Amino acid sequence: MTAAPGTPAAEAARLLDALLDHGAQPVDCAILQPAETLLDLYGEDIRARAYITADPLAGELMLRPDFTVPVVQMHMAGGAEPARYAYAGPVFRRQERADGRAREYLQAGYELFGGDDPAAADAEVFALIAGLLDGLPVRPVTGDIGLLMAAVAGLDTTAPRKAALMRHIWRPARFRALLDRFGGRAAPDPARAALLARLAAGDVPAQIAAAGPVIGLREPAEVAARAARLLEDAAEAPIPAAQVTALDRLLALAGPAAEQVAPLHALAADLPGLAPAAERFAARLEAFAARGIDATALAFEASFGRTTLEYYDGFVFGFLAGDAAPVASGGRYDALTARLGQGRAIPAVGGVIRPAAVARLRAQGGR
User: Fold this and answer.
1) Structural domains in the chain plus CATH codes
2) What's the pLDDT at 343?
């Protein structure tokens, strides 16, 4: 049955045809996905909004909240060869507020695996999505999660502190609290100070035994190990003030993408781990220019993408229209292929479009 013109279904079909014309293979994946395998890959926000059910034979299942992770799993199960895929179909997410957002909506997308030039692949996906939205009143915004990850990886601090900061990159408030504490800038916490003093003053296993019966899932040995880590961390020197300040400046970067190359290279003087990521950023802008994308007019926000899907680890982008959910979004997710590749990995980048949002904008006068 042919969808009525102007409907989300018609837009989904049009977008899929355009993506296939770009050289992608059509792909689909089951609506019911294995929750235990995939849910942790999405991050905190999607985990809280997934529809989960149980099957006596298949175990815990969820209605697919997006296509990217199942498509990556499918591709990596068959190898790690270069490929391009396109899809269109419904996805499902719980909504916590009565703001009219759909719980089931269509998603069309494009995933690019492989290629010898990641910057060129980033530019290809961005340009493709931009072209499909041409004529609509949308505002493109770009970011790069890889810049912050590289900066954190190069900090002069302990591996556990770096791991904690990496884990909370997608939770800006928690990241800020940890950075302030590790950098010695947090306000005094009397309760924490009292706990550390108590742990340092006596035999921790004896304190655990004296506290009464064990309640919860953690065994006494796990509690003691956690206490030891707290004491070890409290004895560590703060992250150098210059590096904390440089991280603040990195997170505050915003403006035309072309104007960020020099500041990024300057920040690398205090954040040595940032230098390779800054070079990748500059190479991406060159790839954009090769596709006719004017980086002097392209918005960049260093913090963009930090509250979205947690599998992105590099270039990220969105096409926005007012305060509504993005009309389109996407980014690079190299690490996700490694996690699902059973030892194999391949560079990968993709983007998705909401056909309902496109249909709405066209109805409002967009071409």
Assistant:
1) 1-138+323-331+342-367 (3.30.930.10), 139-184+241-320 (3.30.930.10), 188-237 (no CATH)
2) 80
